[in-house]
Structures are given as C-alpha cells and as structure tokens.
TrEMBL record:
It comes from Daucus carota subsp. sativus. The keyword Signal does not apply. InterPro entries: Beta-PGM-like (IPR051600), HAD-like_sf (IPR036412), HAD-SF_hydro_IA (IPR006439), HAD_2 (IPR041492), HAD_sf (IPR023214), PGP-like_dom2 (IPR023198). The keyword Metal-binding applies. This is Haloacid dehalogenase-like hydrolase domain-containing protein Sgpp. Keywords: Magnesium, Metal-binding. Transmembrane segments: none annotated. Its cofactor is Mg(2+). One of its GO terms (molecular function) is metal ion binding. Pfam families: HAD_2.
C-alpha cells in the first residue's frame, strides 16, 4: 500500500473529477455529530438489564466492532439470535434512551459549520442519509440546527435495503435529481463507506471514532480527521479551481 501522503494525493485527484460539483450527502451518526459515545451510554444502561456480557457494561471498542454503522435489525439479531421480536423491542427501548441523552449532549463534528457554509454558498444540493430510525434522524438534524439545510433525510428503513447496501444513497441522488459522478458522500463507518462506494460515489471517510485502518478496508476516496482537516479543504479548493476553469473564471 502507498504512503499516507500518496493516498491523500490520489484522493484529492479523484475529487477534482467531481467538478462541477452538484451535491453533498451526509450520514448522521458520527458524521454530522459525535453521537457514538451517547449510543454507548444507552447500550451500557440497558444491556446489563438483560444480562448481556454477564452484566458487565460493554466498552466503546465492543461498540465499534459490533454495532457502529449497522442497521438496528442486524443488531437485534446479534443480541437475540433466537428471538428477533425481542431484539427489535430492545432496540426501540435503546433508541428512546439515546434520544433522551442526545437532546442535551449532541455536538457537531469540528468544522461542520464551515463546510455547511461552503455548500450553501455554492448552491449545492444536499441530503442526510442514515441507518438511524426516523425519530432519531429527525431529532439529531433538528438539534444540530440543520432541518432547513437538508432537502431530504433518507432513512435505511424506508429503502428496500439499508446500508451497507447502496440503496439509501441511490435513493438520495434520485430524489435530488443529481449525478453520482458529481456528488460526494461524508461517512464515518465501514458500513456507510461500503454503501457509498457500492453506489458509485466518491466518499470522504471521517475518523471520528472508527480506526483509520478499519475504514481503509472499505476504500474511501479520502480519509480526514474532521471537517477542519486541511486535506479536505485542499480537495474542495481543487474542485473550485476546476469548476472556475471550466466556466472561464480566472
């Protein structure tokens, strides 16, 4: 595998091919906001009540390995392989605990406001695309002050297949009426990056909580720490430069 600098240069080169950019799509959990620790707290509150792991609360590492980015149906099957209905009910209870915690503790990813302004200034289309249940998705977008920013919030439950299948991202570009060749995705999990790559789009992977080496296995176009990362802005400036050149702007 090439060096980090080589991979970064290749990623920025791939991004320049998106010009003129039409749209940006965002996952929500871990991508718009650092919500994973709040999900961990919800699981730590409820899992001991069912005797999971001998009553010992799970760690964040366990959460990353088994739960992060996955659809609730898959987590329900993991926790209750012989009683899916009970698993579904457990996950509904867990999401209610998460919403209770998140209302007062949800914070945006560093630099998000700067990227939001960049997108708005250029009049780009935008949608949120998530495996979170609809009540969670709408709550998080609202708490972050982005209800007016997003044209659509696409939920995995409302597609034929959730992430890691490409369906939610393909539905987003269909509803926005944009080309996948001129759209990029922001994601923070292997499941989400896999979905974006399968949909044929460029993906910015955020190392919010998931390890960089793990995210690389899903083949994101570019990996960044957050939205203030100079690598991201170098790629966006290249898009601006190519768009301006094509339009004859010096």
């Amino acid at each position: 595998m090439g060096s980090s600098a080589e991979n970064s240069t290749a990623g920025m080169s791939s991004f320049s091919r998106l010009a003129p950019l039409e749209a940006v799509l965002f996952d929500i959990d871990g991508t718009l906001c650092d919500s994973d620790p709040l999900h961990v707290l919800a699981f730590q509150e409820l899992l001991p009540q069912i005797g999971f792991n001998g009553g010992v609360p799970i760690t964040e590492e366990f959460f990353i390995q088994h739960f992060a980015g996955k659809h609730n149906d898959d987590i329900a099957s993991f926790l209750f392989p012989d009683d899916h209905a009970r698993g579904v009910k457990f996950m509904e209870d867990k999401e209610a605990v998460f919403r209770r915690i998140a209302k007062d503790h949800l914070k945006p990813i560093n630099g998000l406001d700067k990227l939001v302004k960049w997108i708005e200034t250029r009049g780009l289309r935008r949608a949120a695309v998530t495996n979170a249940p609809r009540p969670n998705a709408d709550m998080m977008v609202s708490v972050l002050g982005l209800s007016e920013f997003f044209e659509f919030v696409i939920v995995g439950d409302e597609c034929e297949h959730a992430k890691p299948f490409p369906d939610p991202y393909l539905k987003a570009i269909e509803q926005l009426k944009v080309s996948k060749d001129h759209t990029f995705i922001c994601e923070d999990s292997v499941s989400g990056i896999t979905a974006g790559v399968a949909a044929g789009m460029a993906v910015v992977g955020l190392t919010t909580r998931n390890p960089e080496d793990l995210l690389k296995t899903a083949k994101p176009t570019l990996l960044v720490k957050d939205y203030a990362d100079p690598k991201l802005w170098a790629a966006l400036e290249e898009i601006d430069r190519k768009t301006g050149a094509a339009a004859g702007i010096p």
